[in-house]
UniProtKB/TrEMBL annotation:
Keyword terms of this UniProt record: Transferase
Coiled coil ranges: none
Lineage: Bacteria, Pseudomonadati, Bacteroidota, Cytophagia, Cytophagales
Listed name of the protein: CoA transferase subunit A
SUPFAM superfamilies: NagB/RpiA/CoA transferase-like
Family: Belongs to the 3-oxoacid CoA-transferase subunit A family.
PROSITE patterns: COA_TRANSF_1
GO molecular function, one term: CoA-transferase activity
Domain of life: Bacteria
One Pfam family, short name: CoA_trans
Amino acid sequence: MINKVVKDADEALRDMSDNAVLMLGGFGLSGIPENCISAILKKGVKGLTCISNNAGVDDFGIGLLLKTRQVKKMISSYVGENAEFERQLLSGELEVELIPQGTLAERVRAGGAGIPAFFTPAGYGTEVALGKETREFDGKMYLMERWLRADYSIVKAWKGDTAGNLVYRGTARNFNPMMAAAGKITVAEVEELVPLGELDPNNIHTPGIYVQRIFQGKDYEKRIEQRTITKI
């Protein structure tokens, strides 16, 4: 019987080394792999290229890795909540590639699907298009974007089974599923780990074939970036 369970994040990331390319799932602070980020922080690997929708906040998420200078390059679509990111960017300490959010999602999806390039109108005529091939289709200009792939895709799911099948909840579905498919090694941390056969096949979002290692996470903070309430 297939069993991809490892003890914890430390074991799951045991072979990660300096200069690795990582995809980190989640949207804002929703559905981020908190345990794995803590393990990377403790492991102390440096020169990392991090592909993520955003860069966390100063004291949480990828922001922790930026604070310790473990990240060499960020490939993201939104970084507005992280003052340390801004400081490193403006000082030239951090290499940054900002990508329109839809393009980022499609580049990751293309990496998982084995599609090396595609054409999109997003970014044509802006700095995003610098150095990229452009082409006209049906009277409209498009630019070519390359796939994104990673040495490690690190994702967080609500439930998973011992074979690596995953179910996400809510906003965590935005980037985790496509990133899970685009890594050479995909590590999944889950809130609830169940035996094979307990998940309804109709509700599985990431098939276990994409996941190499899975473990039961713990001590999730599940922070909220900006709490907005209605005043009555």
